Amino acid sequence: MGRGKLRIYLGAAPGVGKTYAMLSEAHRRIERGTDCVVAYVEHYGRPRTEVMLHGLEHVPRRQLEYRDSTFGEMDVDAVLRRAPAVALVDELAHTNIPGSRNAKRWQDVEELLAAGIDVVSTVNIQHLESLGDVVESITGVRQRETVPDEVVRRADQIELVDMSPEALRRRMAHGNIYQPDKVDAALSNYFRPGNLTALRELALLWVADRVDEYLTEYRSEHRVSAIWGSRERIVVGLTGGPEGRTLIRRAARLAEKGAGGEVLAVYIARSDGLTSASPKELAVQRTLVEDLGGTFHHVVGDDIPAALLDFARGVNATQIVLGSSRRKAWQYVFGPGVGATVARDSGPDLDVHIVTHGQVAKGRGLPVARGARLGRARILWGWLVGLAGPLIFAVLLNTVDLGLANDMLLFLAVTVAAALLGGLLPALASAAFGSLLLNYYYTPPLHRLTIADPKNIVAIAIFFGVAVSVASVVDLAARRTHQAARLRAESEILSFLAGNVLRGETGLEELLERVRETFGMESAALLERAGDVEPWTCAGRAGFGRPLERPEDADVDVPVGDHIALALTGRVLPAEDRRVLAAFAAQAAVVLDRRRLQEEADQARTLAEGNRIRTALLAAVSHDLRTPLAAIKAAVSSLRSDDVAWSEEDQAELLEGIEEGADRLDHLVGNLLDMSRLQTGTVTPLIREIDVDEVVPMALGGVPEDSVELDVPETLPMVAVDPGLLERSVANLVENAVKYSPSRQRVLVSASALVDRVEVRVVDRGPGVPDEAKDRIFEPFQRYGDAPRGAGVGLGLAVARGFAEAMGGTLNAEDTPGGGLTMVLSLRAAGSRPVPLPVGEAGTEPERQAP
């Protein structure tokens, strides 16, 4: 049984109608007789969606217990046993409840597809892993549930479910998406018109890129060479000269004029070595084009105009931007130049822009190699001179008697000219043909191919030997020059590659794309296997065309060790190219190893952090929590004892001890819970505008009245914060300052305005903290110096900084002039960009977390 097909309905935001469209598709398929079941669909109380579920077969969900609650998840085993033709699976990015078969729902879907079951699913654009940072910058919400882009890209069909922001907000206002009590908060935060417009643009652009990939695959499979101008794609031809920056900026401006414009800068290294670019200048231009949103490409080609046009047609470009020639006027005798040739051969579908710059007609500015490999035109001229030259001299010398010696020198000059132009073979032909003409016309007996005087035989033999020697030297020099030029081109590519890999700038897919472009192949893949008898798997792939399952299926394969191979399709490469290809293969293996080592290091770091947290929690539970519990137990036991008659003062003292122990427990447990919420990303502040002098005094209730001096002016601007989180942060800072302050030294809590910020300072006169330890004291379970065990578990400052950053503020430590430590809490003033209220994952309604 083959692999099932995946169809995904992609939306820009919750409520656009993805689930409704999926259910409509299910009803259409059932009407056509397709066996279709609902594996998991959630309607969230939306009546229209709930109605669409009627008449569809449902696979019962698996019930899981988690944190004293019961949750229903998709039962993968039940769906596999049912084995329908099509399964409906909602919310592809959903995170399964612990104890499920897989951690993520998209992994459940992969199992269904592997079993040959077609799957129809839904996902929002904000849940794509690569767009997490972009979505957070737009909405202020970090999506915790994501799906790898590659999972969505591999879908057989992707259908965009689109809706204008105005229509979506109307649906929200009518109660068709969330419950009425959630509508106002959602409309004023996540579902603002600007947010929805930006998310809609992200969805449209992402789908457009996927459509472009489909188009590229179609053109490759059907060998379509004509340019289809479906979108503006501009190729910039670079020479490595300083004018490249001007060309890149000009191309970027052209791309901005059309929707979805794309810039591709390409440098073509000539294997004949006639030009060489400055690596430093190319690096600058590469950075520039990437900063402008384009891509940089490095290609090897003997014929620069042809290579440039092949590249442009290969990427379906619509325009080419070239600079005006830097050659001087007399240099045009060697040919029309790259720009004129590209413009002449570009055809009707590819526009060529010739851009002027400051280096026009000032000379190449790049070194020119002498005596390079002979081109086709020079070889033709060599044959023409080598064969026609002796014949012309024979006709002319019949009218003038210059003597045999002069005649031989003239014929030798023609042979040398043929060698200089065409190399060895034309020179040999010229020498042989000239010897026959000298023998026939100028050595007695005339007009016969015999020689009467032995001296003439020696002369003709010397003539032939000199001609062959000169031709051999010229041909050897040309071949050596060609080899040197090729090695130089190879070294440029390898140094460029090695520099990127060593700096960590090239991932595996980018490296494979570089291999494909450099050698002009259709696709490049890195295959690996665990053992000699294990099947090959693809570790990374670039390009288009058929996927490779074995190295033997490729046109070119280069092994790297016993279990890794670089495989390419498109054409058979000459043997001289395999040396560079082997270097690419070795680098690809290094990149693959480095990526896996990085993944292992990340996992080890996560495990180490988890172990550290668990160890610290165990220490807190074993001592810091047991101490107040023991004190409370002892006091209660004393009060309940009938053996001792406690006075009222003693009873009051014991009750006070119980209250203090309970307060300590409440504070410790509160900090532990806050820290766990911060580390799991579940702290969601409710931002509103409030005066600092309303919140800060409320944070001083947990410290003695005479231990703090308050200086918070009423004239300060309002701040945009969550009042509960701000109060908790200030309370932790003040408590920490009082704990380390000397007796009879009051802690100063002051506030002041600074540009668009309001700073709250908590100043103590304690021992202070050295500079190297100022960041460490904000880490969880860190207590500076010789603080006693009963002083807490070291979470107060960590929680305070976490809450401050959650509200868009900062918390840092500074030295107090004269000794001590000052905590500086910087908050956003009202009127700056607010943090929107987030929407629950996978389309659930928004929910505020209590501080």
Structural summary, described in words:
Residues 620-831 form the Histidine kinase domain. Its EC number is 2.7.13.3. GO terms for molecular function: ATP binding; phosphorelay sensor kinase activity. This protein is 46% helix and 16% strand. The two termini are 53 Å apart. The protein has a six-stranded parallel beta sheet with strand order 3-2-6-7-1-8, with helices on both faces. The chain has a five-stranded parallel beta sheet with strand order 11-10-9-12-13, with helices on both faces. A five-stranded mixed beta sheet has the order 19-21-22-24-23. It is elongated and about 155 Å long. It is an alpha/beta fold. It folds into five domains: 6-222, Rossmann fold; 233-327 and 337-355, Rossmann fold (3-Layer(aba) Sandwich), CATH 3.40.50.620; 376-477, no CATH class; 504-682, Signal transduction histidine kinase, dimerisation/phosphotransfer (DHp) domain (Helix Hairpins); 685-828, Heat Shock Protein 90. The protein is built from 24 helices and 24 strands.
> SS-based structural class?
alpha/beta
Q: What is the overall number of helices?
A: 24
* Low-pLDDT windows of residues: 363-372, 786-793, 834-851
For the secondary structure, the number of strands is 24
Number of domains: 5
User: What is the overall shape?
Assistant: elongated
**CATH architectural name of the largest domain:** 3-Layer(aba) Sandwich
Task: Give a brief description.
By secondary structure, this protein is of the alpha/beta class. The protein is built from 24 helices and 24 strands.
Quickly list its features.
Rossmann fold, kinase, alpha/beta, Sig_transdc_His_kinase_KdpD_N, Histidine_kinase_KdpD, single chain, ATP binding, 851 residues
